[in-house]
Every structure is written in structure tokens, then in C-alpha cells.
Amino acid sequence: MFKNLNWKLIIIVVILLIIGEFVIYSASGMRQDAMSLVARQGLWMFIGICVVIFIISVGCNRLIEAAYPLYIIVFLLLILVIGFGAQRFGAQRWLSFGFLNIQPSELAKFVLILTLARFFGFEKQRVNQFHFILISIAIVSLFFVLVLKQPDLGTALSFIPIFFAMIYVAGLKLKYLIGLLAAGIFSSPFLWNTLKGYQKKRLLVFLNPNLDPLGAGYTIIQSKIAIGSGGLFGKGYLMGTQSQLKFLPEAHTDFIFAVIAEEWGFIGVFLVMFLYFLLIMEGFNIAYRCKNNCSKLLATGVATMFASHFLVNVSMTTGILPVVGLPLPFISYGGSNLIVSLAGIGVLLSIDRERF
After folding, report:
1. Is residue 30 a part of any domain in this protein?
2. Would you say residue 128 lies in a domain?
3. pLDDT grade, residue 14 (50/70/90)?
4. Are 64 and 114 within 8 A, CB to CB?
5. CA triple 89-204-304, angle to 5 deg
6. What does the angle CA 328 – CA 334 – CA 335 come to, to the nearest 5 degrees?
7. Which residue has the higher pLDDT, 350 or 1?
8. CA atoms within a 13 Å half-sphere pointing along the CA-CB vector of 100
9. Has residue 56 been placed in a domain?
10. Are 219 and 250 a contacting pair, CB within 8 Å?
11. Three-class secondary structure assignment of the chain
12. Are 153 and 326 in contact (CB under 8 A)?
């Protein structure tokens, strides 16, 4: 099973996972459960590695065959979350099964990629037909609306670049692609009316963080202070004042990049960004080398998922984009996101291995 594996991809992910464990401990600051968070992340890491092994052993063809049943299961889970999900920080995103908490919106990203790969992969000659495009939009929209309802704006928006990348690789003509982009832009005012009050405030403070410096703008202000104070070499591991003194909210999850910048400086940020660049490029290279259309689409979707998460998280942390609550893959604390990210790596390894 370990023959012909892409060890370059494996080494990159292992380094990111190790960095994640160290930064999670540091980002936890003076919390008494810091080691507990590291241990739980380690447990999820182990589960994720088991998922990787499972995907490599069964192969991606079987995953694609199971795409439609998996779509229905996740669709039902998303509905279940709205009715019976556990609430945290004003959002209803988790299903609790005893000690196990599942975030179906994270599973939705992975299953959506599988579903679109199957849908586009077997119907390539019909991809430019109007009704075919409408069906593909409906597939994405069902998940988009249910995830937005939780509310989870960041995850919902991550579906969009995945969809556009996969339908483009499937063979959609450029004029239709531009038309879809224009339709999305013109429909954005309707999206504004569906947002919660705190989400609207986040978008407004993006333009001016000082509009609410002790409320919605507080996190991004503290994040910029942390990043700017890191300088070239950083303040040193466990020496970041913003995270250690708890000025930076969500330091171990959505804003963990700011902790890296403060403690490791520009050098550390460059190293982490370079690792993500190698990871994303390797994902797209695997897609480029694919001869099977379904596998090409699947690899494209996974690589786009990693690219969009990385770009949005870094841009959000540095104030280039509004705060939408999207974690940094492999580094941010969180079980569902880590397992789904590792499942994506399993898909890339399986696809690349099938070339031999």
C-alpha cells in the first residue's frame, strides 16, 4: 500500500502538522488546558491518518461511486444541525454524540468535491448545456444555503471557488464562466440581507476597524498588532504578548497565523507560506498529470479547497479581507477541519499513486 506514494506531499503535510501542534500550545497562552488541546489535536491527527490510509486502500474510484449517497447523508446531517445542533458563540454548527462533536459543514466541503467530480466527470460533453449548469448550481446551492443558515459564512463561501475551479476544468466555456461570475456579483446584495447582524458588522469594520474597536473590530486590530510586532525574527516561541496575555481572541483557531507572525516573525511566516505554496502546487500538479477525467476534477477540487482556505485565512488575519471565520488547514485547532483536510491529502495521494 505504501508503494509509489508521493513522499514530497507527505513530508510537507507532516511538517505543517508538527508546526500546528507547537503553535496551538503557544496560542493557548496561559490556559490550563493547553496540553489538553494539543493532545486532542493529536488524537484527531491520528484519526485523520487512519482516514488517509483508508482512502489509499480503497481508491478514489470507490469514493466517487459513493458520492451521491454521501451527498444525501451530509444533506440530512446539515438539516439535523439546524434543528438539533449544539450552539457555540452564537452559531449552531455541531452535532454532539456523547464525547464526539461533528461539524457537518466541514464534511460538506469534501463530499461536495466528490459529488461535483462524479457529476462533471461522467457528463463532460454536456457541461455547456444550460440545464446541466443549472443542476450543478443547485447541487452547490443546497449545501450553501444550509451552511449559511447555521450561520457559517466562511465555509459557505469556500464552496464558490471550488465550484468555479471544477466546472472550468470540466470544460465550461469562458463566456459562460464569466456569466456565472457576473451573476454571482450581482446577486451579492441579496446575500447581504441573509446575513446575521454580527456578520454585517464584521464586513463594515473591514472597511474601518476603528468603527467598533472594542467590538467587531477588536480581533482584527489585535491581529494586526501581533503581526506587525513580530518584525523579522519574531519575539520568540511562547513570547508573543498578544496570545500569551490573551489580547488576541481565537488565537488557536482562526487567528493562529497572527501567532506565527508574532513569535516567528517574517522568517517564520515565509517558511509557512512556502510550505503551503508547495502543497497547493503539488495538488494542482497531480491534477495536471491525471489522465482520468474524474480524478483530474477531484484533485482540482481538493487543491482549490486548500488554496482558498489558506488565502482567505491569511488575508482575513492581515485585514486584506473581512473576518469570515475560516481555519488554517493542518495548523488551526479543530478536529473536523483537520480530518477533512487529511482526507483531501488521502485523495491526492491515492490519485497520484494510481498513475503507476
Report:
1. yes
2. yes
3. very high
4. yes
5. 70
6. 125
7. 350
8. 7
9. yes
10. yes
11. CCCCCCHHHHHHHHHHHHHHHHHHHHHCCCCCCHHHHHHHHHHHHHHHHHHHHHHHHHCHHHHHHCHHHHHHHHHHHHHHHHHHCEEECCEEEEEEECCEEECHHHHHHHHHHHHHHHHHHCCHHHCCCHHHHHHHHHHHHHHHHHHHCCCCHHHHHHHHHHHHHHHHHCCCCHHHHHHHHHHHHHCHHHHHHHCCHHHHHHHHHHHCHHHCCCCCCHHHHHHHHHHHHCCCCCCCCCCCHHHHCCCCCCCCCCCHHHHHHHHHHHHHHHHHHHHHHHHHHHHHHHHHHCCCHHHHHHHHHHHHHHHHHHHHHHHHHHCCCCCCCCCCCCCCCCHHHHHHHHHHHHHHHHHHHCCC
12. no
Radius of gyration of the CA atoms of the chain, in A: 20
Q: How far apart are CA 87 and CA 73, in angstroms?
A: 21
Task: Please list, in sequence order, all residues whose beta carbon lies within 8 angstroms of the beta carbon of residue 44, skipping any fewer than 6 positions away.
Answer: 334, 335, 338, 339
Residue at grid coordinates 486532542: 40
pLDDT in tens, 264-281: 999 999 999 999 999 999
Contact between 166 and 304 (Cβ < 8 Å): yes
What is the reported pLDDT for 284? 96
Q: What is the pLDDT of residue 52?
A: 95
What is the total count of domains within the chain? 1
The residues pairing with 95 across neighbouring beta strands, listed in sequence order, are 102
Enclosing domain of residue 16: 7-353
Work out whether strand 91-97 and strand 86-88 pair parallel, antiparallel, or are unpaired. antiparallel
- pLDDT of residue 171 exceeding 60, the answer is yes
Measure the CA–CA gap between 255 and 335, rounded to whole angstroms. 16
Q: Distance between CA atoms of 180 and 68, rounded to whole angstroms?
A: 24
C-alpha–C-alpha distance, residues 79 and 92, integer Å: 11
Q: Is the residue at 210 inside a domain?
A: yes
Does the CA dihedral 45-350-348-55 come out positive or negative? negative
Geometric angle at alpha carbon 92, from 311 and 326, rounded to 5°: 5
Of 278, 294, 266, which Cα lies nearest the Cα of 330? 278
